[in-house]
């Protein structure tokens, strides 16, 4: 018997290309997660921290809240300086805003800038 050695199908007639495509798709998802997920996790962690501060830090001085936020930003390795974090009291509530960008470079030199914004306001 002559065995058909095809690159596209195996001996049972199943497509090898589907398997290769599946493996490449899984690899792409893992790579993108590795490159992007840490930035988004840091963003959500900082956002949650800022929202908690805005809700429960009514009795703290703005400068103390700012110092806590800056310390948390450094823990999370965010590219924020104290000047980038705005803490002010408006209409009897604490309001926190911050914006930053992170540039991510992928294989092949493609660069993507991720923009993050925090806008947290406490209760009256």
Can you walk through the features of this model?
By secondary structure, the protein is an alpha+beta fold. It has a domain of 84 residues. Helix content is 44%, strand content 24%. The chain has a three-stranded antiparallel β-sheet. Strand 1 and strand 2 form a beta hairpin. Helix 1 runs antiparallel to helix 2. The chain is elongated, with a radius of gyration of 24 Å.
Give me a quick take on this structure:
The chain has 124 residues and is an alpha+beta fold. The protein has helices at 16-56, 62-75; strands spanning 85-90, 93-105, 111-121. The model has no long low-confidence stretch (mean pLDDT 88).
Layout of strands and helices, then pairs:
Layout (H helix, E strand, L loop, with lengths): L15 H41 L5 H14 L9 E6 L2 E13 L5 E11 L3
Antiparallel strand pairs: 1-2, 2-3
Helix pairs in contact: 1-2
| C-alpha-based Rg, rounded | 24 Å
Average pLDDT metric: 88
Largest sheet: 3 strands, antiparallel
Question: Can you write the helix and strand succession as a string?
Answer: HHEEE
Tally of separate helices:
2
Structural class: alpha+beta
- Determine the N-to-C terminus distance: 84 Å
Order the strands across the largest sheet as they lie in space. 1-2-3
Strand content: 15-25%
Uncertain runs are none
Task: Please give the number of β-strands.
Answer: 3
Helix residue percentage: 40-55%
Sum up the overall morphology in one term: elongated
**Quaternary assembly:** single chain
